[in-house]
């Protein structure tokens, strides 16, 4: 059965820990597990097969760190490692094989120095090879940077039509070490079109449960749980985990109640843990994802549902602002960012950004402003541009789910700007074209958005007369906040 269909009608059981299993099989400490695919393929295949025998449906290739940054100087091409890894996984007899993609190992701008497009190219190289080897899915795991996940997701979407799975790893605070919340992850990654989302590593099933509840409250796609075998005890010098396979499996019921349907294990788990999970799942029916119609915006770390009280800072607009116009003409990005920071300090929750003026090379400056502004302001942005090239460049490097303004009901806007906003998972501000009836305009925008997979709750209609607001709201859209 096609994997996309399978995960909507069946439990999908994943595997457990790989690194500890390889070490038990003789891999020296400090070695790169990925190289075992070339030097000891029989050992890697044997680990995969043990998981399959325990009940795993989809094994994940031993390629977590198989990227050109982590494996620089190893003496082998990334393609050779991935090709061997896929062959080893396939030899296990698993129903499905997923290409494992972990973090690159360097932080992206603004947290580090790695540029977004460089990260995209690194992931694209891995995915291109995995697809050519015939994997059934792309599986991103143990991610902490939402922008890094976005780069990987875009690479996967550009190169294949395979199911995309993504799991982030959270600390006990309920955020990743870069501050990403489960709400921001769910909103952004669902908008980008992934097929399953979840949580792995760092914590045990008990500690992850409160975070899983938050994820489930905002998620409408299949959910993944892949915890560690509890918390590690390092007193002996090596990690000893505190949950038995039987105890590990008892937490499955709580996750089933939340709607999780994809189960596996991470650090400290082995085939016994997977076998125990399978024993629990056989007594339950597969929960179906609840469709949650949420209108929300986020940065990489801040999440706001759209209500009439949402506060917009609207001063980054060259109309009637000679000082800002002069700064834009001088390519003075710092002044633009400072204006955004002032509004953040004044209590704005969304920062409006419009730099459209004939004197500005918008396609170059808008993405630069987005990168710089998100480096110092942890709020969502509203990007307003009628320049498709500028809009796409800005949305591509945006971290989170933004709002895109000025999507009018005229044909040009609906065929140039709307598909870009939909591709990057944005919400939009819909506006009636000059002289067009507001309800007719809203209906046209909703129909056009649906063609690109955008649901009505991602649309905020603007400039709607009071006597037509009830009819417009009946379409499932929201009204742009007036406060």
Any overview of this molecule?
The chain has 483 residues and is α/β, with parallel strands linked by helices. 41% of the residues lie in helices and 15% in strands. It is built from 19 helices and 19 strands. The strands form four sheets. It has an eight-stranded parallel β-sheet with strand order 1-10-7-6-5-4-3-2. Strand 8 (232-233) and strand 9 form a beta hairpin. It is globular and about 70 Å long. The termini are far apart. The model has no long low-confidence stretch (mean pLDDT 95).
Produce a short descriptive summary.
With 483 residues, the protein is an alpha/beta fold. 41% of the residues lie in helices and 15% in strands.
